[in-house]
Amino acid sequence: MNATIKDVAREAKVSIATVSRVLNNSAVVTDETKQRVLDAIKKTGYKPNALARSLKIQKTHTIGLIVPDISSPFYPEVVRGIEDIASMYSYNIFLCNTDQKEDKEMNYIEILSEKQVDGIIYMGDIIRDSVKQQLHDVGIPIVLAGTEDAEFEFPNVNIDNKKASYDAVKYLISLGHKKIGMISGPSDDPIGGVQRTSGYKEALSEAKIRFKSSLVVEGNFKARQAYLAMLKLLENNVDAVFAASDEMAAAAINAIFDSGFSVPEDIHVIGFDNTYLSYMFRPTITTIQRPAYDIGAVSMRLMTKLLAKEPIDDMHVVLPHQLIVRESTGYGEEKK
Amino acid sequence: MNATIKDVAREAKVSIATVSRVLNNSAVVTDETKQRVLDAIKKTGYKPNALARSLKIQKTHTIGLIVPDISSPFYPEVVRGIEDIASMYSYNIFLCNTDQKEDKEMNYIEILSEKQVDGIIYMGDIIRDSVKQQLHDVGIPIVLAGTEDAEFEFPNVNIDNKKASYDAVKYLISLGHKKIGMISGPSDDPIGGVQRTSGYKEALSEAKIRFKSSLVVEGNFKARQAYLAMLKLLENNVDAVFAASDEMAAAAINAIFDSGFSVPEDIHVIGFDNTYLSYMFRPTITTIQRPAYDIGAVSMRLMTKLLAKEPIDDMHVVLPHQLIVRESTGYGEEKK
DNA sequence: CCACCTCAAGTTATCGTTTTCTCATACCTT
DNA sequence: AAGGTATGAGAAAACGATAACTTGAGGTGG
User: Fold this and answer.
1) Mutate to test the interface with B, among A44, A70, A140 (most CBs of B within 10 A)
2) Could you say which of A100, B8, B58, B183 has the lowest number of CB atoms within 10 Å?
3) Structural fold of domain B5-48
4) What's domain B161-289+324-329's superfamily in CATH?
5) CATH 1.10.260.40 domain locations along chain A
6) CA distance A69 to chain B (A)
């Protein structure tokens, strides 16, 4: 069907080696032969077969992306950042949605490995030991985008989650709040759980506010648990709440209203992630924004360096986040 | 590095052919030898090299996705739909962002072809002749997702855009409007321009409302032009407007307010696509929703059929759309 | 008892490249 | 003039699989 290097060789009356040489500029070929080959290529409409090439050179110029769900907020931007840089360095990307399920993750990593990807960029909140092990076993560069493993074994690009929640809580303190509650992520989530909670603690301690464990209730990033969590916090008369996700913040606000209080008049609320929920919800929700595109772009750039075996200054890049102030902390009456 | 079929063969003391046979169940192998091979595979940690396999069998089980921008609304859902079905049929997908630029599209199609993808799913509002030609030339199955070419040369999955805008305008008519303006897509866009305009005309003519060309202003799906377009329409005293995109609808609403009128009190507005803008904006915008996930899923299913050379009942699938009624046409005070 | 068939398993060509050798020619050098 | 060294280009061996052919041992029938 498609012309192969052989056809070109025959057409140009040279050996396939010579064709390969002009294709890759891998050795000197006289201008005259080169021209003959070029003509033959044009005439035959020859397109090199990347499969054969990759098989031989043991590089596919392809990298795999493990994503929880491309259709959920945050990830499309990250992926776009990745792909932009990838294309800049002529890499292609395999997109794999896993819903953060262990079996899907394991399965995709295996497939990517069989397809000989040059590297894998992993995204997801929690990175299980089994997955970690398998990522190691593949024996190719791995970059974690927008996440990190507990031991920092893998290169990664992320924001400083502790600092981010520190900033959020500090802002609440700056507004004069003393009884600040938190609806955290699961305690077994090293980032959304542990880190964000520790940022909360730090902000308190810096402001010499005593930490009370009754003011931190564990959530799972989802609405239902957060609603109940907020009810508990209300019993403790909090005057502000920091939730580790926008969805939980929204649920908390609902709980507050349902209990007869109001946001931002009685209680201030801050969420996390700047999802559309945070500006769609009324009142709009003050939140922390992660630089999604940049996380992707920087991750991929890091990957290219790893692939080129370039020296790397920092295997763990921390990108700046941003506090976006909205109605839920009393700012910005959205005007019609 | 990685064990190859040879290593397995040596370990199991059989020929590589036998290993291949148990791998693919392509011929009978005695249980005893089979077991030996299986053991050897486990022992060596052998993973078949998909590249080598693909080179030989001339199939990669990979398909390419041409997308304008994965980080813009609509596409993430479509892609998720595609990937779900792809993974169900054990296909992997290459994601390519083109920003709908001709050179990027051409370039990606070439690369995908070199990487020997089994098929390409194309997304994008406009499909240029050059691109069309190149898609043909690759000689593999092509499916257009959420779009279509003028001549219906390629299999595709889409909604009925004419019907969709017909429905939108008909709804406006049902609300008692007579002077209905339209901010269309570019006239060289066969779908967002031509089709949606023709649906508008049809709804009018069905209601015996005379079409006036002054009531249709061409936009480019973006805010700026739409804002100006709306100002023009206001000069013509329209009492309702149908815009071919949510962004244009939002801009139109801004123009209306800035001119001292109000939505929905004075003028009703309908957008297109049900992007987050349509529910984030105040007033929330009545709009047409395209079933993004389904468009993706059905496109990929169609692709699998094409690849399997199954008989296909319909090369051109039309999926149902939906009118989502919100504040901009006077319905649904969003309650706190 | 031998020709023939069956069936498991081995040999080998092939997919389309890259790359290492080789080799022939031409050009220096002394 | 003889020997050494560039230099351009061909031959052939990979890369790691699949699959078409062989092979050879054992079973069957006339």
Assistant:
1) A70
2) B58
3) 434 Repressor (Amino-terminal Domain) (1.10.260)
4) Response regulator (3.40.50.2300)
5) 5-48
6) 7
A202-260 residue pLDDT tens: 999 999 999 999 999 999 988 899 999 999 999 999 999 999 999 899 999 999 999 99
Tens of pLDDT, residue by residue over B263-312, are 999 999 999 999 877 876 778 899 999 999 999 999 999 999 999 999 99
Q: At what angle do helices B16-24 and B31-44 cross, to 10 degrees?
A: 90
Residue from the list A49, A76, A92 with its beta carbon closest to the beta carbon of B70: A76
pLDDT at B277: 78
Assigned CATH for A161-290+324-329: 3.40.50.2300
CB of residue B208 closer than 7 A to nucleic acid strand D? Answer: no
Q: What share of chain A is helix, strand, coil (3-state, %, to 5)?
A: 50, 15, 40
Contacts of B95 in chain A (CB under 8 A): 65, 79, 83, 93-95
Query: What pLDDT was estimated at residue B331?
Result: 73
pLDDT in tens, B34-58: 999 999 999 999 999 999 999 999 9
Choices 3.90.550.10, 3.40.605.10, 3.40.50.2000, 3.40.50.2300: CATH for B59-159+292-319: 3.40.50.2300
Taking domain A60-159+292-319, whether its CATH number is 3.40.50.2300 is answered by yes
For A72-129, what is each residue's pLDDT tens digit?
889 999 999 999 999 999 999 999 999 999 999 999 999 999 999 999 999 998 899 9
Instruction: Provide the CA B53 to C1' C5 distance, Å, integer.
Output: 34
**Residues contacting A214, CB < 8 A, separation 6+:** A236
Closest Cα partner for A198 from A227, A168, A228?
A: A168
- Three-state secondary-structure class, residue A86: helix
| DSSP state letter for A34 | H
Q: Which residues pair with B182 in a beta bridge?
A: B216, B242
C1' of C20 to CA of A56 (Å) = 14
Contacts of B47 in chain A (CB under 8 A): 110, 113-114
Residues of chain B contacting A55 with CB distance shorter than 8 Å: 49, 51-52, 55
A50 touches strand D (CB under 7 A): no
Q: Hey, what are B106's tokens?
A: 């051409």
